[in-house]
Each structure stands twice: as structure tokens, then as C-alpha cells.
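Sample entry copied in:
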Amino acid sequence: MKAIDQNFRASLRTVEERPIACINVRTEEAYETAHEVLRAEGLFLGTSAAAALHAAVQVGRRPENQGKNIVVIVPDNGMKYLSTPMYRQK
């Protein structure tokens, strides 16, 4: 496991302190993200995790976020999706 950088500082924000935005992610986008991450990084993501990662990438590409760290929680893995269209061979 990778050690946390010595400059890491955790902070907790409440909803009142930070506006919450909703980013809609199409199922196809989540599937594509999951497949890309599986090929590139070897991470086996589920639909929710892939959608969260896709949204985080979109947020990170915004001009106001250039140079900032974007954190995403990966809420599931791909095990329960093996029998679904998400991981069926094309």
C-alpha cells in the first residue's frame, strides 16, 4: 500500500460549506470508464464506482479546478456485475 504524502491534510466539509452539484453519467459512459480503468490500471470497478470516477474526471477538467486534487470514493467493485452486460464480452 502506498504511504500518504507527508503534506496530506484531511478536512471535512459540510453541505452548507460546499455547494453540491449533480453530474448525470449515462450507463454507457460508466461502462466505458470501467473498461478503460480495467485495461489501464487493472482496477475492477462496478457501475457506481465507474460513474463516480467519470464524474470526478469531468470536474477535474473544469478550468477552475486546474492544478487541484480531485478525490473520488470508489463505492463498489465489479464482482456482482460479471453476469450483466457491463462485463460481457463484445
